[in-house]
Amino acid sequence: MSSVSTYTTRHFLGLKGVSAEEITSILDRAAYWEHNPSKVTNQLQGKFVSNLFFENSTRTRFSFELAQKRLGVDVLNFSAAESSVQKGESIYDTVRTLESMGIDAGVIRLKPNGVLQELAEKIKIPLINAGDGNNEHPTQALLDFYTMRKQFGSIKGLTVSIIGDILHSRVARSNLWGLIALGAKVQFCAPASMQAPELAEFAPYVTFEEALKADVVMMLRVQLERHDTGLLNSAEEYRAQYGLTVERASRMAAHAIIMHPAPVNRNVELDDELVEHEKSKIFTQIAHGVPIRMAVIERALS
Ligand code: CP
Q1: pLDDT surpasses 70 at 5
Q2: Does a structural domain hold residue 8?
Q3: Cβ(292)–Cβ(139) under 8 Å?
Q4: Separation of CA 232 and ligand 1 centre (Å)
Q5: Same domain, 161 and 126
Q6: Do residue 111 and residue 147 come from a single domain?
Q7: 3-class SS at 229?
Q8: Which pathway is this protein assigned to (predicted)?
């Protein structure tokens, strides 16, 4: 079976192999939408987009819906719990059904790896990745880049430390591919049980002390729902060894920022006091999700 590129004109599956120019053009278009005074436009009036979330979400789902409504799109929200998936219908048959009804694009989040790629080979309408197993989460990484670019002016030359559950993180992977393309240096920090060895050739694993010297300290959520037993002894032990505590944050550079894709396990990977600390960009990241997703939807439907 032939594989579909992560970034074809039809689908938007990931950032691996996507050029700096393509990423920059999405960030620039997001800036246009962020500063557009119209809350709602008729840019994509008459288009139907379905949000197909087969895994839970708050930020991604609602920011896609806000983005769609700001663009004048008619939104069809699909909930697996209330659908014929409960009768055993497959993900492919579900998406194919909505395609047959005439939707123009699908925003899709899936738990198992590989299914999105298979769908993309068969489905003709554009599919936008809203979180694909531990493979990629490209719109999260784009909003992260948008936040870094606004903070520092440019991403080229930045050092970004990604700390935590790399093994299960689609956010880490999309950030890695995009940040390399944009000229940043990426380094990982994780306990041995949460490392992804296949990524070590692209970003070195460093100590926490080294990771704290970066311009961006990006903490990841410990993804308890994806863990087999034995990866995590206790939340307290994780915080002591790999959490960004107030004391550790006090040793970051004066200009450096804290990022986290959220949801946050407070007092596990990040101390409660740091979530809304002056160094933290967590809620700024969330706000940037709307213009970024406007730019991505517009691209898919244009
Ligand atoms: N960051 C993120 O993807 O959050 P949700 O799971 O709430 O969408």
Answers
A1: no
A2: no
A3: yes
A4: 22
A5: no
A6: no
A7: coil
A8: Pyrimidine metabolism; UMP biosynthesis via de novo pathway; (S)-dihydroorotate from bicarbonate: step 2/3
Tell me the CATH number at 257.
3.40.50.1370
Which ligand 1 atom is the nearest neighbour of the CA of 63? Answer: 8
Evaluate if residue 51 carries a pLDDT over 60. Answer: yes
Q: How many domains does the chain have?
A: 2
The DSSP bridge partners found for residue 106 are 50, 127
Q: How far is the CA of 62 from the centre of ligand 1 (A)?
A: 9
Question: Alpha carbon of 51 to those of 121, 128, 158, 282: distances in Å?
Answer: 19, 9, 34, 24
Determine the atom of ligand 1 nearest the C-alpha atom of 131. 3
- The verdict on residue 9 lying in a domain is no
What domain range includes position 67?
20-136+286-301
Nearest CA to ligand 1 atom 6: 57
Position 89 in a domain: yes
The ligand 1 site (C-beta within 6 Å) comprises 57-61, 131, 140, 261-263
Distance 187 CA to ligand 1 centre (A): 23
Beta bridge partners of 189: 163
At 169-204, the pLDDT tens digits run: 999 999 999 999 999 999 999 999 999 999 999 999
Of 51, 52, 54, 60, which is best to mutate to test ligand 1, by the most ligand atoms within 8 angstroms of its C-beta? 60
Does 167 lie in the same domain as 101?
A: no
- Provide the whole-model pTM: 0.96
Which residues on neighbouring strands pair with residue 280, listed in sequence order? 258
Whether 166 and 274 map to the same domain: the answer is yes
Residues annotated within a binding site: 59-60, 87, 109, 137, 140, 170, 221, 262-263
Contact 142, 30 (CB under 8 A): yes
Mutate which of 56, 57, 139 for ligand 1? The one with the most ligand atoms within 8 Å of its CB, which is: 57
Of residues 87, 46, 180, 287, the one with CA closest to residue 188? 180
| 6 inside domain | no
Q: What is the pLDDT of residues 102-137, one digit of tens each?
A: 999 999 999 999 999 999 999 999 999 999 999 999
How far is ligand 1, taken at its centre, from the CA of residue 107, in Å? 14
